[in-house]
From TrEMBL:
GO terms for molecular function: GTPase binding. Pfam families: DIL (PF01843). Residues 1-126 form the Dilute domain. It comes from Eudromia elegans (Elegant crested-tinamou). SMART domains: DIL. InterPro entries: Dilute_dom (IPR002710), Vascular_dev_regulator (IPR052072). This is MYO5B protein.
Length: 171
């Protein structure tokens, strides 16, 4: 059950983050607020179902950081440093893309300046990020089956002759 929810939450993370990276109309402060609220509801549900050890919440980390990125101030060098230290699960390319797509929804917000984005790129240039922008939503985590040893010993097993397993010998 834990592995199923980890996979499901990864898919939610990948599809949502990919939509965020491809759609300018959703890159805003209010979307960041809405995402963070929805993610907290999912995390609370996991705690309520005692699934917090499943790793499902950790698969949402890139989406959490993208939501926080949308909510942070984006003006000063200190803001750039804060973004760089906060967004460790996002690649440089993803951070820059979100900042480029950021769209103010009211007159109190401003667009992210090119100078600010260049500052972010300068801070993150030493990162060794993968070159892909989008997450692979078809990625599958390996399924792990727990080993439960049998209480029956091998020497007590009788193999019927009808199975035609004469080549097996008891040692």
């Amino acid at each position: 059950v834990q592995q199923v929810f980890k996979q499901l939450f990864y898919m939610v993370n990948a599809v949502t983050l990919n939509n965020l990276l491809l759609r300018k109309d959703v890159c805003s402060w209010s979307t960041g607020m809405q995402l963070r609220f929805n993610i907290s509801q999912l995390e609370e549900w996991l705690r309520g179902k005692n699934l917090q050890q499943s790793g499902a919440a950790q698969t949402l980390e890139p989406l959490i950081q993208a939501a926080q990125l949308l909510q942070l101030k984006k003006k000063t060098a200190e803001d750039a440093e804060a973004i760089c230290s906060l967004c460790t699960s996002l690649t440089t390319q993803q951070i820059v893309k979100i900042l480029n797509l950021y769209t103010p929804v009211n007159e109190f917000e401003e667009r992210v300046t090119v100078a600010f984005i260049r500052n972010i790129q300068a801070h993150l240039q030493e990162r060794n990020d993968p070159p892909q922008l989008l997450l692979d939503f078809k990625y599958m985590f390996p399924v792990l089956f727990p080993f439960n040893p049998s209480s029956i010993t091998m020497d007590s097993i009788h193999l019927p002759a009808s199975l035609n397993l004469e080549f097996l010998n008891k040692v």
